Amino acid sequence: MSEKRGLQEIIKWEKRYQAFGLEKLCAWDFAHDNGQNPAATGVARKYADHFEELRQDGTGLSIFGGAGAGKSYLAAEIVSDLTDRGYHCLFTNMNTVMIELNTMAFEGRRDFLAQICDKDLLVLDDLGSEPETSYCNQIFIQIVNTCLTRNVPLLFTSAFHEDILTKEGSNAKRAMAVTRLLKRNISYTVLMPGERRNTNLEQKRKAEAMVKGGSAGRQETMEGFEGSEAACGETAVTECLPQTVQPSLLQTLQQSLPQTVQQRLPLK
Q: pTM (2 decimals)?
């Protein structure tokens, strides 16, 4: 029985790897959710539970939110759940798509794009981070239009607000493609939980302490610059001023400096 269960786990992991392409993402599922954002997890779970009905109309999911809010994890949870249930999913991003295309001959690019859209669910993670080039926009528009035509649900995550993604800017066709996609998709904005925000701040403080050392705001003298303070103390203020500066201005400057500074920086 244990051998059979072990074999099933291997098969499940292999199918997830085919969907993600990265081993670490294979463990991003509902079972490992830390529970910090139950509302967001609930949305992802309901989408996965009702996927069979939603996919009939090609209804996808648009997940917005700031960096570190958990957008990618929510999308990965959905992919893991659907993949385990036998659906064929692909979790990728436009940067990866463009890299793959650039390594292919022209004849193979059409087949590659056809395979991307030949899924039960396509996920484009971190939309908007890809380079803003005419060729990249062309590929994105082709993917969106193909998914809409075939009723393939397209889930995407983005740190940009939908108003920015639909702003025409330099490419009206791309903005129109996003607008059409948003009309079919369910939109959801993820807010970073306070606990996660505090954890991130604490990690940043620890990292800064390791690099800067000492207490906050205190800077240690770097090796090789031990004599820099003494050298500054020996420099007269007049050496840093033009020769044409009037003596009266120097006198005023001297009077405005604290006594400790006047002692360390002698005025000529």
A: 0.73
